[in-house]
Design a protein that fits this description.
Blueprint: H1 4-39, H2 41-65, H3 68-78, H4 81-110, H5 123-152, H6 157-179, H7 188-213, H8 218-230, H9 233-241, H10 251-255, H11 268-303, H12 305-342, H13 345-372, H14 374-381, H15 385-417, H16 422-446, H17 450-477
Helix pairs in contact: 1-2, 1-6, 1-12, 1-13, 2-4, 2-5, 2-11, 3-4, 3-5, 3-12, 4-5, 4-8, 4-11, 5-7, 6-7, 11-12, 11-16, 11-17, 12-13, 12-15, 13-15, 15-17, 16-17
Length: about 475
């Protein structure tokens, strides 16, 4: 049995690069908004509409890619190189296929954008930006697949470096293409979209080179190439399935009580279906969580422009805490999937609870700092004293929901690592559609508590999700030793 300190150290080392990479994405998004906003208000309005549409798409694609971690991580933990290599192929197939389906659906929407009821003057700005972002989705999906694969085998530093370079490229190209520098035309909003497209192509191509040319991954990519060239993988897999893992845990011991047993892929088609079956519930769950915040924002808009502005400021601030929790949760998923592959169920539980404690500690420190320096922080986002004052009133709700958010992030990641995603979707529907959104409406709109009431509904949903995910995790692991 490993000491708790070893779990905390390992999760910290795995999680830090993930956090840094995601913070880079936040900085790049803020830079996009600032540069487009400085160029013109119509361009900012058009980009806001398109980005709201694509935020759900990006969450969906991210959820699909999350299925890679439990499959790759468990195979890696078990020492099954054959299944690791096939998971890479399946991940690329599934993620690129879903991106192609979404591109088709978004193309249909493109020819019917008028149904959104947006001002006609925005359409000439909106349409080109919409198209270029749409065309970037397959590259983003391919990057997601490779990123999750690389992180599942413990190499979280590589995606971090690639993402940071991509963010720098995106910001530099924004300045050049939006404002027309270095002899290039002044493309405005379309220039911002083109910069995003180029950055996402860079992400995918760079990760392809790293994975398929790098020595670290050669043991798996060579097997993949050998499978394609010689068609011998099925016989090798059949042989390995009869052998116990190197750690001494039998295959049945390593998978008892888990919804989707860790078995080598018999064919690429079955492996792809397995990955899609895991990824779809995760994708829908992420979209439901995002929807609860977006609908809360809609309620704030019903109350007035000041509450809507305060909502945006607090959401942006809360993203900083979320990224810490997200990085720790992703690291926990990697550890849990690898321990699961080796049948070390005690370590599965210890890794999860260690991550929960670590995440709660960081959340407490971050929230304490935000509350202590609330005046300075809110003044960075707005000079409007009315917005700042309302932000202070929303802070208690912001503090309250950290427990639920921290809990649901850690335990949902551990459940994903166990491939136990079936009930998670049901729990997400209960927490977000039946608790969070109705409570925000009831408190904020129906009972008239205003902006504060809307935000006090959010902790109900997140805490419900967290408690349900704890219950499911304990149910799945309590009989496993």
């Amino acid at each position: 049995m490993r000491p708790i300190s070893s779990h905390i150290k390992a999760i910290s080392l795995l999680g830090l690069p993930i956090v840094v990479g995601q913070l880079g994405v936040i900085v790049q998004g803020m830079a996009d908004t600032i540069m487009v906003g400085q160029y013109g208000t119509p361009e900012l309005s058009a980009s806001a509409l398109v980005n709201n549409i694509y935020n759900f798409i990006i969450f969906f694609l991210l959820g699909i890619s999350y299925a890679t971690t439990p499959i790759t991580g468990a195979a890696f933990g078990q020492g099954d190189d054959e299944s690791v290599s096939r998971s890479l192929k399946d991940s690329l197939i599934v993620n690129l296929s879903f991106s192609a389906i979404l591109v088709f659906l978004l193309t249909v929407l493109y020819f019917n954008l008028d149904i959104l009821g947006q001002p006609e003057k925005l359409m000439p700005l909106l349409r080109p930006y919409y198209l270029i972002i749409m065309l970037s989705l397959p590259f983003l999906a391919g990057f997601n697949a490779l990123k999750q694969f690389v992180e599942a085998v413990g190499e979280t530093n590589i995606p971090m470096h690639v993402m940071l370079v991509s963010n720098a490229i995106n910001i530099a190209l924004n300045a050049i293409l939006i404002y027309g520098m270095m002899g290039l035309p002044e493309w405005g909003l379309f220039g911002a979209g083109l910069a995003t497209f180029i950055a996402r192509v860079f992400l995918f191509v760079t990760m392809l080179v790293v994975v398929f040319r790098g020595k670290r991954f050669r043991v798996w990519t060579e097997k993949l190439k050998g499978e394609n060239a010689k068609g011998k993988t099925d016989s090798l897999t059949a042989h390995r399935s009869n052998c116990p893992p190197e750690t001494g845990a039998t295959r049945s011991e390593a998978t008892e009580g888990v919804d989707n047993p860790l078995t080598p892929h018999r064919s690429s088609l079955s492996g792809s279906f397995r990955m899609a079956r895991i990824g779809l519930p995760i994708a829908v769950q992420l979209c439901l969580e995002s929807a609860s915040f977006n609908i809360a924002g809609m309620f704030m808009g019903w109350i007035g422009d000041i509450p809507l502005a305060a909502h945006q400021v607090i959401c942006t601030i809360s993203t900083l805490v979320f990224m810490i929790q997200y990085g720790i949760g992703a690291a926990a998923a990697i550890r849990v999937s690898q321990f699961r592959g080796r049948g070390e169920w005690t370590e599965v539980r210890h890794a999860t609870y260690s991550a929960w404690g670590l995440s709660a500690t960081f959340s407490l420190l971050m929230v304490g700092g935000i509350c202590l320096f609330r005046e300075l922080i809110t003044s960075i986002f707005t000079s409007d004293l009315r917005v700042q004052t309302l932000c202070y009133s929303l802070l208690p709700a912001f503090v309250l929901y950290q427990f639920g958010d921290c809990t649901q992030i850690i335990f949902s990641n551990s459940l994903r690592a166990l491939e136990a995603v079936g009930r998670m979707l049901l729990y997400a529907i209960i927490a977000y559609l039946l608790v969070s959104i109705p409570m925000s409406y009831l408190l904020g709109i129906h009972l008239g508590f205003g902006a504060e009431g809307v935000w006090y509904g959010i902790p109900f949903g997140l805490t419900t999700a967290g408690l349900l995910f704890i219950y499911e995790f304990r149910r799945k692991t309590k009989h496993l030793t």
